Amino acid sequence: MDLIEVKQASKCGDLPFSIHTAYKWHSKKKYPNLLIKVAGKLFMDKNEWLHMAQESRNKQTRESERLRNCEVI
């Protein structure tokens, strides 16, 4: 795990989403592997974020390949 504090990350520009979004996602338990609360502070796992981005890219690639194979010439 590569944890970074959400408040510090938002000040440095390292947070890929707004601080308000992070707190909302955490309160709704939307991405439990991404946002972790430790000792009252909210942290983001950078490795999990990269993993999620990689999966999203792979899914988009598979979808575009599927659509290209279904095109009628």
Plain-language structure description:
The protein has 73 residues and is of the alpha+beta class. The chain has one domain (3-70). It is 56% helix and 16% strand. It is built from three helices and three strands; from the N terminus they run βααββα. The protein has helices spanning 6-12, 19-27, 46-70, and strands at residues 3-5, 35-38, 41-45. Strands 1-3-2 form a three-stranded antiparallel beta sheet. The protein is elongated and about 50 Å long.
Approximate helicity band: 55-70%
The percentage of residues in β strands lies in: 15-25%
> How many β-strand runs?
3
Shape: elongated
Quick check: average pLDDT? 88
Specify Rg, calculated over alpha carbons. 16 Å
Total number of distinct structural domains = 1
Task: Name its key features.
73 residues; alpha+beta; 3 helices; 3 strands
Write the layout of secondary structure elements.
Blueprint: E1 3-5, H1 6-12, H2 19-27, E2 35-38, E3 41-45, H3 46-70
Antiparallel strand pairs: 1-3, 2-3
Describe, in short, the structure shown.
The protein is α+β, with helices and mostly antiparallel strands. It has one domain.
